[in-house]
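Why this split exists: single-chain examples teach little about how molecules sit against one another. For that reason, every record in the complexes split bundles all components of an assembly together and asks for one structure covering all of them. Below is a record exactly as it appears in the raw files.
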Amino acid sequence: MLLSVSLVVLAAVSAACGGGEVAEPTTTTENPYGEALALDPPAPDEVILTVTGPNGTQDYTLGQLVAAATTTVSVDEPFVKQRIEFTGVPLADLFTAAGITDQTNVDTVALNDYAYDAPASVFSDSDAVLAVRQGGGDIPIDQGGPIRIIFPDGTSGSSNLEAWNWSLRRIEAI
Amino acid sequence: MTLPQALSALVLVVCLAGLLINAIHSQLHQREMIEAVTRSDSAAANVLFTQREGFVLANRMGEWLNGNASRREIQVQRALLERRLSVVDPSGIDGAQAAGSRFTDSLAVLDEFMSAAPPGELPLADRPAQSLVVRPALERFQEAVSRLGGAYQSASDDAEADSVRSRQIDDQRQLALLLGTVVAGTVLALVVSADIRRRYAAARQRISEDRRALDQALVLDRGEAAILAGIVENRPSEELIVAALDMAHELTGRCASFQRADRRDLFGLPAKLHFTHGGGCEELGASWAQQSWTARGSHGTTLGTLTLCLSTGSESEETDATPGQSRESIANIARRCSDLVALVLDRRVAEDQLQYRASHDSLTGMLNRVSLLDAIRTALVHRSDEHDQVAVIFCDLDRFKLVNDSLGHQSGDLLLRAVALRLNSIAADSGVVVGRLGGDEFVMLCAGTDIESRAISLAEAVSAVLDGPFLIEGSEVFVAGSIGVAVSGPASIDAEDLLRNADIAMYRAKTDPTLPVVLYEAGFEEESHARLTVDRDLRRAMTHGEITVHLQPLVDLTNGRWSGFEALARWNRAGEWIPPATFLEVARLNGLLPELGRLVAVAAFDALARLRAEPGGDALNMWINLARVQLRNPSFTPWLIAQLHQREIPPGSIILELSESELLHLSEVGPALDALRSHGVRIAMDDFGTGYSSLVQLGRLPIDVVKLDRAFVADLGTDDYREFSVLAAAVKFAEAISLGIVAEGIERQLELDAVRALGCDCAQGFLFRRPAPVEEIIREFRDGLGSDTAGLTAVTAPVET
C-alpha cells in the first residue's frame, strides 16, 4: 500500500519534470544583418552551385538561381538568433531537375568543405529552401552566403542544425 | 496496527520520500549536466570550427605571400571565418567572444594588412617586403588559433569533474536511501507477516473450536434423539439413564455419575439412586448439573432432585474446564443430559400413574374389578396345599340407593369413600386385599390355612363397622351391609367363579335380613340361577297374562266399610307365586316397570269399573302404585285420563301411590303430578316415614294423602309409649298439613286401636283382608262383606293417650 502510493507519487513528479521543456528565448537586434566585409568581385558568370544527380551535372550561376527564386520565407536563424527573411529555390525543385528522388542520399558540401549527407527526403519533407536572397539583397559570405540551405520554422529540419549548410557549393547524389 | 508496524512503515515512507527527492534532484542535475554538456559541446564545436577556419585563413595568407592565392580567396576565407565568429553558441556567446581578444586582436592586424594589399595575386616584387611585415603578424595569429583548443579543454575538464563529484554524492545518497528502504520494507514485511500468521492461527483455532462444538452438538442431538426414541419405545429406565450418562462421558471425557435423592421410592427404583459410567473413578466428581424435578400430573409436587456429576479423576481439575472445552459447553452437556434423565424418570412416573389408574378405582383409590380378579387369580395359583385356601368376602350396601336418591350422588360418593376408609382400616389390620367392584359392592380377599373361620370373622367385623352411622355432609346416614363369603375348596376353581359364589352368598344375605353374613354353599347356585331366569320368564308372563292384579281393601274406620282397594301385581308362574319384591326389582332393573305398571293400571281400572257397577260401588276408590319412570313419559297422563273416560270412571276415584324417595325428585315428577291433580286424580305418598325427607320438604309436595309405613305400628307394644308417641306425631303432622292419612300394614287389633285412637280414618292390613283376586273381592263386596268389616266389630276402647 505504502509502496504503491510512493510509486504513484514518484511517477507523477517525474512526469511533471520531464514534460516541462523550457523554450529558448530568441534575441533580435535592430540591424538584423550587419555590414558585410569588403570582398573583391567574383569572375563574371561564376558558377556558385553544382548539382550532380542521375540526370547529370548541372552548374548554376547566382543569376540563374536568383531568377528561379520564387519562395520567400521568414525564419528564426538559429546561429545568429535573428529573424531573417530569405528568398530562394525549393531544394525539391533542384532535386527534381537533377533526377534526385526522395530515397536518394544526397551530400551537401560548403565552400569550406563542410559536408552533410542525408536522404533527399530529409530536405524535401521539411520544405528546405536554397536561399539566394536575404532581406531583398544578396547574402554576404560572412552571413552564410551567397547561397545557403534553410528550413522553415516548425519543420523537423528546423532544429537539425547540422543540415543548415551555409555557403553551399555542391549538391551530389551519392 | 502495532507499534513496530507503524514505526517501520514510517521509516519506509521517509526513505521512499528521500529516494523520490533524490531522484528528482538527480534528474534535475542530470538535465543541467546535459544542457551544460550540450552547450559546451556546441560551444566547443564552434571553437573548433573557428580554429579550423583560422588555420585555413593562415594557410591561405601564406599561399598569398608566396603568390599562389588571390586577395579574393583571402577575403572569402576571411568572410567564412567571420561567419563562424558571428555564430552564437547556446550560452549566448558568439564565436568572437569565445575565441578571445588575443585571437581577435591578431586577426584585426591581419585585416589591416589585407585592406592595404593590392587586389589579385601579390606581385613577385612585393612578396619579400610584404612577407617581412605580414609574417610576424601571421605567426602571432597562428599561435592564437593554436591556443583556442587548449583554453576550451581545461574549462571543460573542470566542469566535468564538478559534475562527476556531484553525481557521486547523489549516488551515495541514493544507495543509503535504498538500503534504508530495503531494511524498513523488510522489517515491515516481517512485522505484517507475523501479524497475519498470528491472526491466521487465531482464526484456525476459532474454526476448530466451532467445529468441535458442532460435533458435540451433533453427538448430543443424536444421543438425545436415541434416548427420546427409547422413551417412546418404553425401553427400561435404567438402560436409558445409562445411555444418557454414556453420552455425557463421551462428550466430556469424564466419568459421569448420576444421583437421585427423592422423597420416596418410586416404581421400584430406590430413593437413592446412583448410576456411574466411565469406570475407574468411583468417587463422585464435581456437580455439574442439579435440578429438582416434578412428575407430570402430580399436582406439580417436587418429587426429588437429580444431580449429575462429572469427574476427571484428579482433584485439581475437578472444577476446571478441560483444555479446549469451555466450562459453559460442559455445563450445557451436563444440563441436557440431566434433562434427559429427568424426562426418563418423568415418563416412568407417568406410566406408573397410568398403571395405577388402570388398576385402581378412582373414587376410593381401592383396587378395581380387574386387579381384584388378578389378585384372586394370583392367590389361587399360589395355594401350597389343600389346607391353604383363598376366601372372597363380597359386601353390598343395603340402603345405598336410598341415600343416593334422597341425598344426591355427591353424598353417595362421600358415603362410598367413608365405607372404603372403614374397610381399608380392617384390611390393613388383618393384611388382606380389599377393592371395590363398582357401585356399592366391595370385595375382600384373604388366603392361608383355616381361612373359612378367619373370613367369617372378617366379614362380621365388616358388618359391624358398617352398622355404625356415617356422617355425610352433616347428616347421619345408616347403611347396613349384606355380606357373602366364598372359600375355595380342594377342587379347582377359577377367580371369576369364586367371586360369583361370594356374590350369590351375599344375595342370600340380602334377602334374609336376619343373616348379615352368609357363607356360600353349593345349593345357592341353583337359587341364583333361578333368580337369573326370572327376567326371561317375567317378559313371557307379561305377554301371556300370568301377571294378574289382586285387590286389598282399605277400610273407612268411621263406618267399617270398604272405601277402596289397593291394586297389587301378582305373578303366578306355573302354579308358583313369585314374591312381588323379586319380580318388581327385576322389572325395575330391566326397564319393564312402565309396561308392568300400565298392565296393572288397566287391570285395576277394569276391576273398579266392575265394582262401580255393583250397588253402592260408585263411591269406591282405586289405589294404584306408580313408579317415577312411568311419569317420565309425557303421554302417561293423557293415556290415563283416556282410560278412565273410556270406563266412565271419575278421576277423583283414582289415587296414585308414589314412594317417598320417588316423590323427592320433584323437579322430575312435579309437572306430571300437577297435571294429574288438575284432572282430579289424587296422589298418595307410600311408605311415609321411611325416607329422609324433611318436614319442610313434605309440606311442599303435591300430594293429597300419606300412607303411614307399617314400621310406625309394627313396634307398638302395650308397655312402651314411645312408639305410640312417634305414631301420634306423624298423624298430627299429616293432619297439620291437611293431608289424609292411611295406616298401612295393620295386622293386630292393638294397632288398629292405636290408629283409631289417633283419629286415623282409613286403614289397610291383614287384620281386615289380605289381598285377593278381583273376582273374589267383587263377590265379597256384592255379598256385603265390605259393608261392615269384621275387624271393626271387635274394636275395643283405644289406649288412652
